[in-house]
Design a protein that fits this description.
The chain is of the alpha/beta class. It is built from 15 helices and 39 strands. The protein has four domains: 202 residues, Alpha-Beta Horseshoe (Leucine-rich repeat, LRR (right-handed beta-alpha superhelix)); 116 residues, Alpha-Beta Horseshoe (Leucine-rich repeat, LRR (right-handed beta-alpha superhelix)), CATH 3.80.10.10; 130 residues, Leucine-rich repeat, LRR (right-handed beta-alpha superhelix) (Alpha-Beta Horseshoe); 146 residues, Leucine-rich repeat, LRR (right-handed beta-alpha superhelix). The strands form seven sheets. Strands 1-2-3-5-7-8-10-12-14-16-18-20 form a twelve-stranded mixed sheet, with no helix packed on it. An eleven-stranded mixed sheet has the order 21-22-24-26-28-30-32-34-36-38-39. It holds the Pfam family LRR_1.
């Protein structure tokens, strides 16, 4: 399976849209199921987000889902669907994410008494834990105009791809008065990618040519199924498609030259099929192409020289295990180039003669002779003596889930997972280091069949991956040894799981530059071993700073900059005496900086600018500023006359929960960092030492 890269500039544009939502002072961050708190079941009367007709249609649709999946029928007892487990109601619409139970049953058709266009489900995700989910894809789901993100990967679904699913996802349908605040909520749906992920199922049949005539999906993942037939030339009409994955099927025929008409396509994988013929020169017209995987097919002929000349931003090209002749484009074989993999004859110095295109293809090496295993047989089955047999079995089973989701290419029948790429084994535990590896997928939950107490995974790094999506698995709190998690600079979204408060071994968590929303969980105060917490530039995190976090006394770095936090700095945080780095700039904080923060004698760096702080720095900070402490902040806070010129208004500083009025925030700003307006901030520029 190929994993597709998303242009980082797009993230900035989407983040600007998200900022607009915050600036409009939208009330509430979303309603999550009450059962997010173990043992609590609360059923409220209604939800403020949607009209009565939208609520009725959505409830009836979700009731049909409930009746078709027994596990949900036992859990979804509330009449108000927003109070049901695995359901989140917010400005983006209704999201269903079933991520930690074994699901059996089937998917229902949209009931006849439901106005499908009024159903406000925008995301439906049931991936990797539903092998007992059987039946076919409901054709009537094409009527769900707001369903932009559908992920049904790793289930037992079979049958064919419904032609009706080519119906356009109406990304503007939120303007039809289905929601109580049309303009604000319509913008809230902006960052959601339009995805159809049907990978790792038992789907058969051909690729529907009709899909491309109306569908406006951005990512279509059909890899690891049993699809056959040819590649439809009509799919050239997929004008919005950015990523297409058809790997690991039994597709035949040739590569359609007409696909050069897909202007947005930048990632394409058709590896491990039975495609033959030559590589179309016309494809060089796909100017945005960055990742192409055509390995393990029956392709012949030469690699078009135009590909090397026109595709100047390539990050990965895989052409190995074919019968290509001639030489690779010189642009792809220059010193230092590492993104290109091909059979050795294509890369040899004498490729123009020894691998000349004249003659029969029988002279070309077979795939078995040019694609050796990444590890020897001895390594593959060597015993792992660092851990017990139970730990080896549980860890192997959990790592298999990563391979299933991301198709990393691990040889799963190898008992020695320490020999797998990206896996490191130490006496302390197992590390999965995939930072910077662009693979499409989501972080898998711990399967119910795995004894989590025996999993010895201590580190998971998926940072700097523009194709990592979905939310954080709530049941990772069951991993007793987990110390290090990084999803920085990814598309991971949702709320920070309250359940993670029980991850007693967690020492490092980096979720900066993501799309998390909601508030900071007060329950995380139980993370007493956490040393580094980075939540910078998520744009959507808001609320106040939890006083209870004063119990996180191991914290050495806390980065909360670039968010929408309001209120004051909790005086109780003075107990965080291990603090060395403290970044809270670019929020909506106000009031004074507690003098008790002088107890942070190890503090070496802090950023405070673009808030609405009054008064002065703590006395110890003033004494050490410019010596052992680097401080950046708004000039009035740092000025010599801060005590008088920047004095705190008593009524404002006494409040710990009321942020400055919305009038102090410039409306309509697209900046990723929004300082308070000049009317609420004493004059003077930000300065640093």
């Amino acid at each position: 399976m190929s994993f597709f890269h998303t242009d980082r500039s797009l993230r900035s544009k989407l983040a600007a849209v998200v900022i607009c939502i915050v600036l409009l002072n939208f009330a509430g961050t979303g309603t999550r199921a009450a059962s997010a708190v173990p043992g609590v079941r609360r059923c409220s009367a209604n939800t403020p987000f949607y009209t009565a007709s939208a609520q009725e249609s959505t409830r009836k649709f979700l009731d049909a889902v409930k009746d078709s999946i027994p596990a949900l029928k036992r859990l979804w007892t509330c009449e108000n669907f927003c109070d049901r487990e695995y359901v989140t109601c917010s400005a983006r619409g209704v999201e269903v994410n079933v991520d930690d139970i074994i699901v059996e049953g089937s998917l229902p058709e949209v009931p006849q008494d439901v106005v499908a266009t009024d159903v406000v489900v925008t995301r439906f995700m049931l991936s990797g834990n539903g092998r007992n989910l059987v039946g076919t894809l409901p054709s009537s789901w094409s009527l769900l105009e707001l369903l932009t993100d559908l992920q049904l990967a790793g289930t037992g679904l079979s049958g064919t791809l419904p032609e009706s699913w080519g119906a356009t996802v109406n990304i503007h349908a939120l303007g039809r008065s289905l929601l109580t605040n049309m303009s604000t909520l319509a913008r809230a749906n902006g960052p959601r990618k339009r995805i159809r992920d049907l990978s790792y199922n038992n789907i058969t049949g051909t690729l529907p040519a009709a899909w491309a005539t109306s569908a406006n999906w951005q990512y279509l993942l059909l890899n690891n199924n049993q699809l056959y037939g040819t590649l439809p030339p009509e799919w050239t009409h997929f004008k919005s498609l950015e990523g297409l994955n058809l790997a690991h099927n039994v597709l035949t025929g040739t590569l359609p030259p007409s696909w050069s008409g897909m202007p947005a396509l930048h990632a394409l994988s058709i590896s491990d099929n039975r495609i033959d013929g030559t590589l179309p020169d016309e494809w060089s017209g796909m100017k945005l192409m960055t990742r192409l995987q055509l390995n393990s097919n029956k392709l012949t002929g030469s690699v078009p020289s135009s590909w090397g000349k026109q595709w100047v931003n390539m990050e990965k090209v895989a052409l190995q295990n074919n019968a290509l002749c001639g030489c690779a484009p010189p642009e792809w074989t220059a010193p230092g180039v590492q993104f290109f993999t091909a059979d050795p004859p294509l890369l040899a110095p004498d490729c123009s003669t020894a691998n000349a295109c004249e003659g029969s293809s029988s002279s070309h090496p077979s795939s078995s002779s040019v694609h050796p295993s990444s590890s020897s047989v001895d390594d593959c089955y060597a015993p792992i003596t660092l851990y017990t047999d139970a730990q080896n079995a549980a860890t192997h089973a959990f790592l298999e889930r990563f391979n299933d989701v991301f198709n990393i290419g691990w040889k799963i029948d190898c008992t020695n997972f320490c020999s797998w790429q990206y896996v490191s084994c130490t006496v302390d535990g197992v590390e999965l280091n995939m930072g910077g590896v662009d693979l499409i997928g989501f972080l898998p939950p711990v399967p119910s069949t795995v004894k989590s107490a025996d999993v010895v995974l201590i580190k998971v790094d998926f940072s700097h991956n523009d194709n990592l999506m979905g939310s954080l698995p709530t049941n990772w709190n069951l991993l007793p040894r987990m110390r290090y998690i990084s999803v920085a600079s990814t598309w991971v979204d949702g709320e920070l799981p309250q359940s993670w408060a029980s991850m007693k071994s967690l020492q490092f968590f980096d979720a900066s530059h993501t799309l998390f929303d909601g508030t900071l969980p007060p329950q995380w105060s139980a993370l007493t071993q956490l040393k580094v917490l980075r939540l910078s530039d998520t744009q959507l995190l808001d609320g106040t700073l939890p006083t209870s976090w004063s119990a996180m006394t191991a914290l050495e770095e806390l980065s909360l900059d670039g968010n929408n936090f309001g209120g004051t700095l909790p005086p109780a945080w003075s107990a965080l005496t291990a603090m060395k780095t403290f970044h809270i700039n670019n929020n909506r904080l106000f009031g004074s900086i507690p003098e008790s923060y002088s107890k942070w004698i190890k503090l070496s760096t802090t950023s405070l600018e673009n808030n609405n702080f009054c008064g002065c720095l703590p006395s110890d900070w003033i004494a050490r500023r410019g010596k052992s402490l680097a401080v950046t902040g708004d000039q009035p806070l740092l000025a010599d006359d801060c005590a008088t010129a920047n004095s705190c208004d008593h009524s404002a500083s006494s409040s710990s929960v009321v942020p400055p009025s919305s009038s102090s925030v410039p409306s309509g700003s697209s900046s990723s960092v929004v300082p308070p307006s000049s009317s609420s901030v004493p004059s003077g520029s930000s300065s640093s030492v």
